[in-house]
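Colleagues,

For the teaching module next term, I've prepared a clean inverse folding example: a structure given as tokens, and then the sequence designed for it. I'd like students to try predicting residues themselves before seeing the answer, so please don't circulate the second half yet.
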């Protein structure tokens, strides 16, 4: 009886581990689609700030004339 009970508990634990591994694998597929890496975000923000800086410089040049 103890052997059967221990095998049943072991089987249940293994099933839950497999389910968790499947969920992690599914999350890895979604990460690149729904989230942005920190480095990519910083690079994009730097480009946007540079473009805004150029626009403001042009506006300042127009206002001075």
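(Answer key — instructors only)
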């Amino acid at each position: 009886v103890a052997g059967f009970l221990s095998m049943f508990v072991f089987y249940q634990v293994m099933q839950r581990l497999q389910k968790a591994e499947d969920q992690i694998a599914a999350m890895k597929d979604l990460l690149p689609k729904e989230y942005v890496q920190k480095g990519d975000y910083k690079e994009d923000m730097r480009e946007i700030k540079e473009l805004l800086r150029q626009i403001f410089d042009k506006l300042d040049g127009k206002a001075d004339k």
